[in-house]
Design a protein that fits this description.
heterotrimer, A mainly alpha (290), B mainly alpha (276), C alpha/beta (437), B: mainly alpha, MetI-like fold, 2 domains, globular, C: 437 residues, alpha/beta, D-Maltodextrin-Binding Protein, domain 2, four-stranded mixed β-sheet
Chain lengths: 290, 276, 437
């Protein structure tokens, strides 16, 4: 179908995007790689000598590093699990006929429109604060000791907040996918006596597979760099309980102003993210190729 | 949908879905409530909060302290600007990938997505230095460009999936009729993809509106959007729940209202190619 | 005709050149605490008087510090006036990032500023930041609760052990009163501001004379164990996420019996519009333990002009206004004297209206004059600073140790573990920075 001329035109049309992204990637990346081999602390001006792999060594041997890796995985995995399962549930529910569907839908989607900073602040102060928050008030009303979320279950609290923000997104995509399901096929199965679980398992779920893949891919990209929610609630603590890789890099480069070490962390994060990306591409490649 | 639904079942579904939706929406509802309370009432137990008096004081206090409309306009300009600039670059690219796919198309697409994985905190200092050199610090144009670049992969991908659903024969027919490439994109493709483009715009405006790292770190005062506005209310002294609520409502209301009106578009349009 | 044109042109040029000197557009970055918000509220008066305009960037402390440091260190020039603390001023001044502020004129009356405050904001004898307000720390307590428990206000400085006994008697969670509220939120300017002077009192120090960290010493262990036990037994729930502002709200709301914190918070606690305990609060010195050295901290929020600013003259004009005697009077008269910026000028403490409105004035003055950052510990140290160490590396170390102690407080790890981790980290950082060979 494609002629030589249209190929050339296609290349021309795609090039601005590729060049821009290439620039956006290469310029900061090469600067980051360059800085990662220097002793470069913003607070200590003067010459920035070349130090080889020293920054990488410091970053990787940081006691917080392992914790940050584990937390990143738990955070991404936990949120994905909650949002995908919850999203399927919501999608199935919202796909049913009901009164006031429009209002109910917008209420479910609403958290997606809230800035991460705002949702972090709101959850931290108005809900999870053990003295003045709603959960604290409820616990006191029931005569129980209020849970101090950010010191007793810090990571779980963060996972909860982030899930609240991303559940609408998963719901939206899964709902759209569900609506495109061939109703006749479902009805035929029902006639044949297939139970609801069987219909769900053999018809709906396979139909949703692509949508689930998309949810996982897009969310992973955003979840790997969760930052604002941690910054305004726990500052990565207590200890390193909620420090993810992004936050650890923030600590090195913008709290300790050690640009060299922060850059080394940045390079490591990019490499890890790309490993994840390759993994996801394999997965999605199988599922998405038409 | 030939199936008739029993009213009882419909009522049950409505009740369950309504309850869950209320739970999801409650945090937003609650800050709206708190924003109309006095600081002293705002920290009381929920039932006492509801029974206390209503006031607009917090909105007045917030507006007196920070110029809301300046931040609001910056947010509007930055999010719309970056989205439209992004579309300008993305439409041709997505067209090319959808209708003239090569061997590398899938890899190029995935590579584009992977640029989104660059952790912003790691590259702030290099970008900051570049911004100083180009005099872009605290300018809207600087932020428009950065946010455009950040969201470009998503825009391209979304458009690509919409364009792919458009049957190629239509384009060929147009070509037979002697339409130029420009005309083809402008008069045939774009109208057909309009719902998809609308969803893309919506999603990207939301993402740009809520982006809080670059917008906070690359601005000072002139170009500071609502994310910077909210940052000054995050942990002030004394009681602050009502003021924080008022500021939060002011920061999220515009995008929430936009979302409300475009709800149908979002529900139908956000597929990312997930629907065959 | 020609002549007229020339005159018009000349006038225009005069207007343009003259105009740039007269009406500058300044960007000012400040922290979002109440004193600064009052300054923002009053500044239109200055704008009217001078014709300059101000653009405000008001941020939460941590965000402000990061934002301002990034900009100043990269010479970004985003800000013409910045709010910095007693920790940054000397370090940044030495590095040439700030304009010297020795030339604000005779009317400014430098001699009126408390000497420790001036010294704290100078490097090598040059003043780099002018104080907006300054503070030490002391113990706030509730007179009504003391009376109920049969306790007397201590006449002399008590020890932390005596303090703990006192707190135990006051603790009454059933009635919503916690024995003590102390900072637990991690950060060198948050929990470490309380922990630092407490460690000093227990005879500990950050570094020995060779810059070797001593965080794993028995003194640190005794201090941190005391702190964790005290807070777990008599503190409010969620103590590890409470910083200065959270505790201040709790105390003002009547939920705490005692609170060791900034003297500058007194203006708020004694203000009946803001606090429900204004008429039943009093104060005494922060406790000592094995030594009384370095038991009250020293801090100042100050205004400075980055050397990357292009509008230095107008910026200095603002500084001279906002930290002047007249400004203190202006706040006193428009906001009430209790809200006047404390701790900076002798004249404030000689003002009868202030002393009458602020019952804490004398104690605050004594505490500030007594704080000696140059000799903060029992054993000799190579650094200055009471609750901080005035070296650039301290921020990173202080934040990390703060996190570890917060984790111990939250019960996520043991005190030993927290101190061992902290020591390892501090050794790493000091090695990396070249202090330890």
């Amino acid at each position: 179908m494609a002629t030589k001329a249209s190929r050339a035109a296609a290349r021309l049309m795609i090039s601005p995007a590729v060049l821009l992204l290439l620039g956006w990637m290469i310029v900061p990346l090469s600067l980051t790689v360059y800085f990662s081999f220097l002793r470069y602390n913003l607070l200590m001006p003067g010459d920035n000598p070349f130090v080889g792999w020293e920054n990488y060594q410091w970053f990787v041997t940081d006691t917080s590093f392992t914790a940050a890796m584990v937390n990143t995985l738990l955070l991404v995995g936990g949120v994905l699990l909650i949002t995908v399962l919850g999203g399927i549930l919501f999608a199935l529910l919202l796909d049913q006929p009901m009164w006031g569907q429009g209002v109910i839908r917008i209420m479910v989607i609403a958290p997606f429109f809230v800035m991460p900073t705002v949702s972090g602040l709101v959850w931290k102060n108005m809900f999870m604060n053990p003295v003045n928050g709603i959960f604290g008030h409820i616990a006191q009303g029931l005569g129980m000791a209020p849970i101090d979320f950010f010191s007793q279950v810090p990571l779980l609290s963060i996972i909860g907040i982030v899930s609240w923000q991303w559940l609408p997104f998963a719901t939206l995509i899964l709902l759209t996918a569900l609506q495109s399901l061939d109703q006749e096929q479902l009805e035929a199965a029902e006639m044949d006596g297939a139970s609801w679980p069987a219909r769900f398992w053999f018809i709906m779920l396979p139909h949703l597979a692509r949508a689930i893949t998309v949810v996982i891919l897009i969310q992973t990209i955003f979840l790997l760099s969760v930052f604002a929610e941690i910054l305004v609630t726990t500052n990565g603590g207590p200890g390193t309980a909620t420090t993810n890789l992004t936050y650890l890099i923030y600590v090195s480069s913008l709290l300790q102003y050690d640009v060299g070490m922060g850059s080394a962390g940045g390079v490591i994060a990019i490499i890890l993210a790309n490993i994840v990306a390759i993994f996801l591409m394999r997965m999605i490649g199988k599922n998405l190729d038409a | 949908m030939a199936r008739a639904t029993a009213p009882a079942r419909k009522a049950l579904t409505t009740a369950i879905a309504g309850t869950l939706a209320f739970v999801m929406f409650f945090p937003i509802l609650w800050i709206v409530v708190l924003s109309f309370k006095s600081e002293v009432d705002a920290i009381r137990a929920p039932l006492q909060v509801l029974s206390s008096g209503w006031t607009l004081d917090s909105y007045g206090a917030v507006q007196e302290r920070s110029d809301y409309f300046k931040h609001f306009w910056n947010s509007v300009i930055i999010s719309l600007g970056s989205t439209f600039l992004g579309l300008l670059v993305a439409i041709p690219a997505a067209w090319a990938m959808a209708f003239v796919p090569g061997k590398q198309t899938r890899n190029v697409l995935m590579w584009m997505l992977s640029t989104k994985m660059l952790p912003p905190v790691g590259v702030l200092v290099p970008i900051y230095l570049l911004f100083i050199n180009f005099g872009l610090l605290d300018t809207r144009i600087g932020l428009v460009v950065v946010l455009m670049l950040i969201n470009l992969p998503i825009i391209i991908w979304m458009l690509y999936t919409y364009f792919r659903e458009i049957p190629g024969e239509i384009l060929e027919a147009a070509r037979m009729d002697g339409a130029s490439l420009r005309e083809e994109v402008l008069y045939v493709l774009t109208p057909m993809a309009l719902p998809g483009i609308a969803s893309t715009i919506l999603l990207n405006v939301i993402l740009a509106w809520n982006e809080a790292f670059w917008t906070l770190n690359l601005t000072a005062s002139r170009a500071a959007p609502l994310t910077a506005f909210i940052a000054s209310y995050s942990s002030p002294e004394g009681l602050f729940y009502a003021k924080l609520s008022a500021a939060s409502v002011m920061a999220i209301a515009p995008i929430l209202i936009m979302g409300w009106f475009s709800q149908k578009q979002l529900v139908r349009g956000l597929t990312f190619g997930a629907v065959k | 005709m020609r002549l007229r044109n020339a005159t018009v042109a000349a006038t225009a040029i005069a207007l343009v050149t003259g105009g740039s000197a007269v009406a500058e557009d300044l960007t000012i970055a400040t922290v979002n605490n109440s004193d600064m918000i009052i300054m923002q509220k009053l500044s239109p008066q200055w704008e009217e008087a001078t014709g300059h305009t101000l653009n405000w960037v008001v941020l939460e402390e941590n965000v402000l510090r990061q934002r301002v440091t990034t900009d100043i260190a990269t010479k970004g020039g985003s800000f013409d006036i910045v709010t910095i603390g007693a920790y940054e001023a000397p370090i940044w001044g030495k590095q040439g990032w700030l304009n010297a502020l020795d030339d604000l004129g005779d009317a400014y009356d430098y001699a009126d500023i408390f000497e420790p405050v001036r010294n704290g904001l100078s490097a090598d004898g040059t003043l780099y930041a002018v104080p907006f307000y300054a503070e030490s720390s002391f113990t706030f307590y509730r007179t009504d609760l003391f009376e109920k428990a049969g306790l007397e206000k201590p006449a002399e400085q008590i020890t932390y052990d005596q303090f703990a006994e006192m707190v135990a008697q006051l603790h009454d969670p059933e009635n919503g009163v916690y024995g003590t509220c102390q900072r637990g939120k991690a950060g060198w300017g948050e929990n470490m501001a309380f922990v630092g002077p407490m460690v000093n009192a227990f005879g500990g120090r950050w570094f020995d004379m060779e810059w070797n960290p001593t965080i794993d010493s028995p003194e640190w262990k005794a201090a941190i164990t005391y702190y964790v036990d005290l807070m777990n037994n008599y503190g409010p729930p969620g103590a590890s996420s409470n910083g200065h502002n959270e505790n201040r709200a709790l105390f003002a709301d009547g939920k705490c019996a005692t609170w060791v914190d900034a003297t500058s918070a007194a203006g708020y606690i004694f203000n009946p519009n803001e606090s429900s305990v204004a008429d039943k609060t009093d104060f005494f010195q922060a406790p000592k333990q094995v030594t009384d050295k370095g038991t009250g901290w020293f801090w100042a929020w100050a205004l400075a002009v980055p050397s990357s600013s292009t509008k230095v003259d107008a910026a200095k004009e603002f500084l001279a206004w906002a930290t002047s005697k007249d400004y203190v009077t202006l706040v006193g008269e428009s906001e009430g004297w209790v809200a006047a910026p404390p701790g900076t000028r002798k004249s404030t403490y000689e003002n009868a209206a202030y002393v009458e409105a602020a019952p804490f004035a004398k104690t605050v003055e004594t505490s500030i004059l007594a704080a000696n950052p140059a000799d903060p510990t029992k054993d000799p140290v190579p650094y200055t600073g009471i609750q901080f160490v005035a070296i650039p590396e301290f921020q990173g170390i202080g934040n990390y140790v703060g996190q570890q102690i917060a984790a111990a407080l939250a019960g996520q790890q043991s005190v030993d573990q927290a101190l061992a981790n902290s020591q390892t980290f501090a050794v790493r950082e000091m090695t990396k920075a070249g202090y330890i060979k």
